[in-house]
Write a structure and sequence with these properties.
Number of helices: 6
CATH class of the largest domain: Mainly Beta
Radius of gyration: 21 Å
CATH topology of the largest domain: Jelly Rolls
Distance between the termini: 55 Å
Number of strands: 14
Strand content: 25-35%
Helix content: 10-25%
Length: about 250
């Protein structure tokens, strides 16, 4: 269960919209959530909106009956200089939550009701700009997710979430799946040397493409440097990979 905390202990800038928010609505709950606790649960109809002041959290979807958690689709972090809004879509009307939000480590957050938001929109243009920008980003992300799902419709794929230090692919192991880096940093080490990979939106995001297409063993070890999200595509979907990423096999011939 979350516990109250003293917002002054976080060093919130006095001229920020968060300070103005707390001064205008002193009844806003200031809550400290512990690692693995949830701010929001998928399918819930609550209308609370959270302002994360410090900490990291994971967005999860498709939590089925009996599942401890859903599939991780994004990781976000916040600090007092760049707070993050969570659950803001609830302000547009009561509906079921489309995703869960799980804390990764300690999270310091403000819990707002729609009534708080009404008062703040009327009096603080800065707060309104931030909220509208966040809503626009959520709608954009939803569109990108839909396009990605359409593109991968014919593929047998799963999502992989790894904490720092976890080995994603081991050198010498058979490349039964093709790993595509979506979020986070990965370090690699092999006979050709070593390096670090970050998502670029290109062919370099596929970690073990050569071994995957050649039905060979991985020629390097890939390890999560930060919290990482990957898509792992089954070997049976190689034709679908070629259709969706035609430049990928061609780049391996260079």
């Amino acid at each position: 269960m979350p516990v109250p905390f003293d917002a002054d202990s976080l060093g919130i800038p006095p001229d920020s919209h968060v300070s103005a928010l707390l001064a205008r609505c002193p009844d806003i709950e200031r809550l400290l959530y512990r690692d693995e606790e949830y701010l929001i649960l998928e399918g819930d109809e609550s209308q609370d909106i959270f302002v994360v002041l410090r900490g990291s959290y994971v967005i999860e979807q498709d939590k089925g009956p009996g599942d401890a958690r859903g599939k991780a689709i994004a990781v976000h972090s916040a600090d007092p200089d760049s707070p993050s809004y969570v659950g803001e879509m609830a302000y547009l009307g009561r509906t079921q939550r489309s995703a869960s939000v799980r804390c990764s480590g300690a999270v310091f957050a403000l819990k707002l009701t729609p009534g708080h938001v009404d008062a703040l929109i009327d009096e603080f243009p800065g707060f309104t700009r931030v909220l509208v920008r966040q809503l626009a980003e959520r709608l954009r992300d939803a569109g990108e997710t839909l396009r990605a799902l359409n593109m991968r419709f014919a593929m047998e794929a799963r999502q992989v979430f790894a904490k720092p230090g976890v080995v994603l692919l081991e050198r010498g192991a058979p490349a039964l799946e093709l790993y595509q880096l979506v979020e986070g940093d990965v370090e690699w080490e092999g006979p050709r040397g070593s390096g670090r990979i970050r998502p670029s939106g290109g062919d370099a995001d596929f970690l073990n493409a050569r071994a995957y297409f050649q039905s060979a063993a991985n020629d390097a070890t890939f390890r999560a440097k930060t919290e990482v999200i990957c898509v792992a595509i089954d070997r049976a979907s190689r034709e679908a990979v070629i259709r969706n990423y035609p430049s990928l096999p061609m780049s391996l011939l260079k």
